[in-house]
From TrEMBL:
Protein name: Bifunctional folate synthesis protein
Key word Repeat present: no
One matching Pfam family: HPPK
Annotated PANTHER family: 2-AMINO-4-HYDROXY-6-HYDROXYMETHYLDIHYDROPTERIDINE PYROPHOSPHOKINASE
Catalytic reaction equation(s): 7,8-dihydroneopterin = 6-hydroxymethyl-7,8-dihydropterin + glycolaldehyde
Family assignment from sequence similarity: Belongs to the DHNA family.
Role: Catalyzes the conversion of 7,8-dihydroneopterin to 6-hydroxymethyl-7,8-dihydropterin.
Keywords: Folate biosynthesis, Lyase, Transferase
Keyword Secreted: no
7,8-dihydro-6-hydroxymethylpterin-pyrophosphokinase domain mapped to chain residues: 206-217
InterPro entries, per the entry: Dihydroneopterin_aldolase (IPR006156), FolB_dom (IPR006157), Hppk (IPR000550)
């Protein structure tokens, strides 16, 4: 991905742990590497096709002066998020916040924090087999899309499927969506669990009836296994109620583990 760089933008702002830092303020140096595709702008000479680094610099200056934080870690995190949310064409940012006047009582050039943040693509499976099923599913889509750090880019149609695991229960309504998000996998899982809870989800019987079930199927090309989270979803390649709606919105998405496309995995279980 192409890069546009802003190096050591000087800003006077009021961030720091000590009260006098919040009152008197001090100098900060901000460097940003903006990741985007400059091909179209380079071919057309059209400023609107690229990132306006002058506007980004003004945004950084205004944001730094409008807020007061104790930690430069907080400064970097908040500023990176706001730039990703408000800068057209920006896909990823490497941001460094330097504090040359850091009050440590020793001679130093600067103290800094450098972070890398980006938009991620996740695929979420949705299901419900209790009460007003479509209302729960539509509500989950709306709840995710209403967050500033999430954008629903595609949604499959809803599919009626028989229950999986515990078969003596009502049919499910299932679907999948494509989500653009700034959340980490763990943060996204927490948001999904909270959304389920708000829909009245109770975890009583494994694979039992539920008002709302939300699972992370893919997250970029990440392979992750922890005590609470497995990505890609461990059973997704065996489940037609996941693969059918997923195929509708992402037939050529590759499984990062086995290398197969969603279409290939669906065809395998339909044989």
């Amino acid at each position: 991905m192409d890069q546009i760089k802003i190096e050591n933008l000087e800003v006077f702002a009021k961030h720091g742990v000590f009260p006098e830092e919040n009152v008197l303020g001090q100098k900060f140096l901000i460097s940003a590497t903006l990741y985007t595709d400059t091909r179209h702008a380079g071919k057309t000479d059209d400023l609107t096709a690229s990132i306006h680094y002058g506007e980004v610099s003004q945004f950084i200056d205004a944001y730094m002066k409008a807020h007061t934080y104790q930690l430069i870690e907080r400064v970097a995190e908040s500023l990176a998020e706001e730039l990703l949310l408000h800068t057209k064409h920006l896909q990823k940012i490497e941001l460094e916040v330097k504090k040359p006047w850091a009050p440590v009582g020793l001679p130093l050039e600067s103290v800094s924090v450098k972070i890398l943040r980006k938009w991620h693509t996740a695929y979420i499976a949705l299901g419900s087999n209790m009460g007003e099923k479509q209302k729960y599913l539509d509500g989950a889509v709306k709840a995710l899309d209403s967050r500033k750090d999430c954008q629903v880019e595609k949604k499959s149609s809803w599919l009626i499927t028989p229950p999986y695991g515990v078969t003596e229960q009502d049919d499910f309504l299932n679907g999948c969506l494509k989500l653009r998000t700034l959340l980490s996998p763990e943060e996204l899982l927490e948001v999904l669990n909270q959304t389920e809870k708000e829909a009245g989800r109770e975890r009583i019987i494994h694979w039992g009836p539920r008002t709302l079930d939300l699972d992370i199927i893919f997250y970029d090309d990440l392979i992750l296994e922890t005590d609470t989270l497995c990505i890609p979803h461990v059973e997704m390649h065996k489940r037609d109620f996941v693969l059918k709606p997923l195929h509708e919105i992402a037939p050529y998405k590759h499984h990062p583990g086995n290398g197969k496309t969603v279409r290939e995995m669906l065809e395998e279980i339909q044989k």
